[in-house]
Amino acid sequence: MLLEFPVEIVDIILAEVTDRNDLKSLCETCTALYKLAVPFLYKSITVRAKDELSLQKIDVEPFLRTCHTPINRLKGVKALEITSQFYTKIGDRCTHRDVGGSQYELVQNLMPLLKELKEDSLRSFTWDLGTCIPPQILGPFGHLPLKQKGIESIRLTTDGACEWNLYGNCLIDLSEFKNLKSLSWSGLRSENDFSTLHGALQQFSNQLVELDLDLIDWNTVNYFLMDQDDSRDFFVRRILAIPPGGRKGMFSALQLLSLSGVSLIDFPEEITEAFDFKTLRSLKLRLCPGWDDFLQHACQSCQPIALKSLEIQITDDIEDNFRDTISEFLESFEGLEKLFISTNSARDPLDLWYAALHHKSTLRRFVHHVRGGASEDGFSYEDMDRPDLSFTQKEIKSFGGWFLNNPLHKLDLECIGFSCRPQYLESLIIPFMQKRTLKVLHIRQSGPDLENYPSWAVQCDYFGPDSGLSEEEVDPIQTPSEEEDEDRDNDGMPGPSKHKNSSSSSSSSDDESPKLKRKFQDFAHWAFGPHGISSLRIIAFGDFSYGGRYHQHNILLCRNTSPGYFGQNFRHLNQEDRELWDLLEEYSDVLEACPTGNLFED
Fold it and tell me: Gene3D superfamilies, per this entry (predicted)?
């Protein structure tokens, strides 16, 4: 059928096929389609390190072999990603730290692939190994600055704490990429890193569409800046390259701004004026001291604000004016589609929810995560997820008693992420029994909590290495005993146990899946049941940040629509659920928002 169209039309059609499996299937159909589709299949390639302990071991031979086929598949490559997992080795990653010439081996493995790419063909380059980038690749006179000057997007994740980098032995050159539109850099720390970034922003600020900077931890960076005359103006002068007195509209084309671990405390007005809020569509401020002054100046600047996505993750210091700042900013414009907020404040969460109503006609994705800020029964929540989102028992009971008491009933949300125990969650999402808009629900429990304390969803025997503690002994936010919990439900606390429309059982049809806790099962039975949320497709539990670092703790459930099933109205996702995996990919920004902890640890 496709071959009946002119080649130009087929190319247009193939350019719209985004699923690599579909392209692969087309390549396997016939020789004619293979010749047409294979350039699109190899338009973007990803090479992965063998594992995190052997980041230098990257096998590019399968790609090199394609150079000797009738169609050289590498000649059409537009995007190259060099990557690895960030699961276990989150400190001291760089290959310079290994003995035996690991950095040399890394260069030897990668250079043959880079040399086979057509000159000036690359438009996107990603280095996601978390190591120094060999100068032979991206240094002055490196291969990419000399042979791939047409690159428009650069994404770097480097080990800034590596001594080789700190002493200036791994220079990076971005000055040759005259068409640069997107720049992302995580892990920068050395004097040369900041000098390189400063030069790039001076050169390309007016053409950048995306800027993503992650300094990981400002306190650590500030320590390295102690010998500077004044580290307070470091970001505004040494990174953004804003001259004294400001430079209005310096980033005039910028649509996506993401800052993590960056101090905005001083000169917030100059920083704000550098960005054009009528052009900016996405703003992320993660663990940035001074975020509140930045937003306040944005409100006071009288700039039109056209944001579609806003993510704010509060620093360890609890800002007294948090509620006023967020509310004022949210109420200063309309049209927001995504709102992701993580705080360590126990202050009234309803203020945030009511402020979100200012965007009720457009808001579709909402994350609210709360950590610490309270204590109960002698245990502190200072560095743990709050199990109730800081709502009082009276408020939760009120939401469950009448859905109009819940401000969410005015929002047509499609995906929600709440850090909340399942037994409280039903009351918070009851409005969506009627609205039929909610597709994906993420029950957020932070990865560090899952590794040290009991899961809210999965039964297990012990937590933490050699703890010797049972689940009840180690859980500082453990609810009362099952008997007491049932009594509380019967006394009027809304909970899934009120909706036992089928027998409670293991959520798995085989022995390999984890055994779920009763209250999590009860909640899933209610949510997917006849008295639950009919539009709900997926319940995701756990922490999906950093490429799945905490995947062993995560749970994905969907509605059980298998004919003849008995008892369970939900099941685990499996590999055949392609449509549901696509749905998760669509809402991946919700699942990955506001991560607890950093990409790196020193």
Answer: Ribonuclease Inhibitor (3.80.10.10)
Query: For 483, what's the count of Cα atoms within 13 Å in the CB-facing half-sphere?
Result: 0
Q: Give the whole-angstrom CA distance, residue 278 versus residue 297.
A: 14
Q: Give tens-digit pLDDT for 214-238.
A: 998 877 777 776 555 555 677 887 7
E-only strand ranges, 54-112: 54-58, 79-83
Asked if residues 264 and 284 have their Cβ atoms less than 8 Å apart, the reply is no
The backbone region for 3, taken as left when phi is positive above 0, alpha when psi lies in -120 to 50, beta otherwise, is alpha
pLDDT one-digit tens code per residue, 369-387: 998 865 544 556 567 898 8
β-bridge partners, 365: 338, 415
Q: DSSP E strands: which ranges in 7-78?
A: 44-51, 54-58
Amino acid letter, 174: L
Residue 241 in tokens:
């390259």
CA pair distance 426, 388, nearest whole angstrom: 12
Nearest one of 258, 261, 265, 259 to 219, comparing CA atoms: 261
**Radius of gyration of the chain from Cα atoms?**
26
| Those residues with Cβ within 8 angstroms of residue 560's Cβ, 6 or more apart along the chain or in another chain | 528, 568, 569, 570, 571
- Per-residue pLDDT tens digits for 279-314: 999 999 999 988 998 999 898 888 899 999 999 998
- Using the predicted structure, report yes or no on whether residue 357 has a pLDDT greater than 80: yes
**What's the CA gap between 587 and 579, in Å, rounded?**
13
Tell how far CA 57 is from the center of its chain.
Answer: 27
| Structural domain boundaries in the chain | 320-458+514-601
Percent over 70 (pLDDT), the chain: 82
DSSP state for residue 256 in the 8-state scheme? E
Report the pLDDT averaged over residues 103-108. Answer: 91
C-alpha torsion sign, points 8, 9, 15, 19: negative
- For 430-462, write each residue's pLDDT tens digit: 999 988 999 999 999 999 999 988 999 998 743
Separation of alpha carbons 286 and 498, rounded Å: 39
Q: What is the 3-state secondary structure (H, E, C) of 431-471?
A: CHHHHCCCCEEEEECCHHHHHHCCCCCECCCCCCCCCCCCH
- Strands (DSSP E) found in 294-434: 309-313, 338-343, 365-370, 375-376, 379-380, 415-418
Mean pLDDT taken over the chain: 83
Task: State the CB neighbour count (10 A cutoff) for residue 297.
Answer: 18
Q: Kindly report the three-state secondary structure assignment for every residue of 104-169.
A: HHHHHHHHHHHHHCCCCCCCEEEEECCCCCCHHHHCCCCHHHHHCCCCCEEEEECCCCCHHHHCCC
Q: What is the DSSP string of 202-241?
A: HHHTTT-SEEEEE-S-HHHHHHHTTTSS-GGGIIIIIIS-
359-370 as b/e: b if 16+ CB within 10 A: beeebbbbbbbb
**Contact (CB, 8 A) for 298 and 329:** yes
SS3 65: helix
